[in-house]
Write a structure and sequence with these properties.
- This protein is an alpha/beta fold and 334 residues long.
- It folds into three domains: 2-58, Beta Barrel (OB fold (Dihydrolipoamide Acetyltransferase, E2P)); 68-212, Rossmann fold, CATH 3.40.50.300; 221-334, Ribonucleotide Reductase Protein R1, domain 1 (Orthogonal Bundle).
- 29% of the residues lie in helices and 21% in strands.
- The chain contains nine helices and 15 strands.
- The strands form four sheets. Strands 10-9-8-11-13-12 form a six-stranded mixed sheet, sandwiched between helices. A five-stranded mixed barrel has the order 1-2-3-5-4.
- The chain is flat, with a radius of gyration of 27 Å.
- Bound molecules: guanosine-5'-triphosphate, magnesium ion and zinc ion (ZN).
Length: 334
């Protein structure tokens, strides 16, 4: 029988089949040995007795953070205040999701805390609607402006992601008064949430199927080569055609060299700032791997046509001759 994982707690996998029957299963040892990880959203095959997951079905998509699979859309949730809206952080999520080929939309929560809401809305919409992102302004706590969002998420498997404290669990509680996920105040001093949600979980009600996830912030582009970062910024890449050098990384602040620099007046400041920041992380990554490959080179030695690993003196086995000489020497001393 096939089912979908909707929650994982310690070693227990909570799954639901298409008739909504629930089973609590463990993983078959072979899956662990083959290092096949099962995450929330995965479709799996169960054993006859329904006690074990025996295999994972093909995935439509998957992400490492949050650990989810097979989602139709990621709703990136931010708050206008508490914590303060951070466009670089929003760009980080969007770039990461683009890299992973995941559809996404933006939800800006806590609109009740913004005095100049209309101006703020226009500013943010101007940046992201150009990039074809759907964008919703809501107040989850006060259940304001939820209708468009409801229409958009109906019938899709949606996952929520965003910093701790932006109101992901509050949004789920507002969409369905019958559920009461734990929520927590944002610290006034640090403007940070308390990492209240600890696990991913699919919550299903009516036509909605939404995955609550723990908030996270320490996402870095320290896994990508620098020249790939521009692909994550369509709105900036647009102007890259006339750079003087084909390998331009678009971080040269000199007119006539980089066509992105020459067109900065047409690019949103926070988008370009984010590009430079992520590029820097990728440059550090490139430096790290080049250092690592030099180190690896110095650890290797040529043996005929082959390259072998140099073994440090301490680890090298003592040859039989040396051993014999040592014994001789010891005997002579006596
Ligand atoms: N003023 C206001 N506060 C809100 C709104 N939505 C949520 N909050 C408050 O923000 C705080 C954090 O909300 P949570 O729902 O716990 O945030 P979360 O994103 O689930 O956080 P983690 O589980 O830690 O990732 C709570 O005190 C909520 O009451 C809103 O629309 N307006
Ligand atoms: Mg939460
Ligand atoms: Zn350039």
């Amino acid at each position: 029988m096939q089912a979908q994982v909707y929650k994982i707690h310690s070693d227990f996998y909570y799954v639901k089949n298409f008739k909504h029957d629930v089973f609590v299963c463990k993983l078959r040892e072979i899956l662990k040995k083959q290092k096949i990880d099962i995450v929330v959203g995965d479709f799996v095959e169960l054993s006859e007795d329904r006690n074990f997951i025996v295999s994972r079905l093909e995935r439509k998509n998957s992400l490492l953070r949050p650990k989810v699979a097979n989602i139709d859309c990621m709703l990136v949730v931010c708050s206008i205040r508490e914590p303060e809206l951070d466009l670089v952080q929003l760009n980080r999520y969007l770039a990461y999701l683009k890299y992973n080929n995941i559809n996404c939309a933006i939800c800006i929560n806590k609109e009740d805390l913004e005095e100049n809401l209309d101006t703020k809305k226009q500013e943010i919409k101007a940046i992201y609607e150009k990039l074809n992102y759907k964008i919703f302004f809501i107040s989850a706590k006060n259940k304001l402006d939820l209708d468009d969002l409801k229409d958009f998420i109906k019938g899709k498997l949606i996952a929520l992601c965003g910093l701790s404290g932006v109101g992901k669990s509050t949004l789920l509680n507002s969409l369905n008064p019958d559920i009461s996920l734990r929520t927590n105040k944002v610290s006034l001093k640090t403007q940070r949430g308390c990492h209240t949600t600890r696990h991913c979980e699919i919550i299903e009600f009516g036509e909605f199927k939404i995955m609550d996830t723990p908030g996270f912030s320490n996402l870095k582009f320290d896994f990508l080569l620098p020249e790939k970062i521009i692909d994550l910024f369509e709105d900036i890449k647009l102007y890259s055609g006339k750079c003087k050098y084909a390998n331009c990384l678009h971080n040269v602040c000199q007119e006539g060299i980089c066509s992105i620099f020459d067109n900065l007046d047409k690019i949103d400041k926070s988008r370009y700032e984010s590009y430079l920041l992520f590029l820097n992380e990728a440059l550090q990554y490139r430096e790290l791997i080049s250092k690592r490959s030099i180190k690896e080179e110095s650890l290797n030695k040529k043996i005929g046509n082959r390259t072998g690993l140099k073994i440090s003196k301490r680890k090298r086995a003592v040859s039989r001759n040396t051993e014999k000489q040592k014994i001789k020497g010891e005997n002579n001393e006596n």
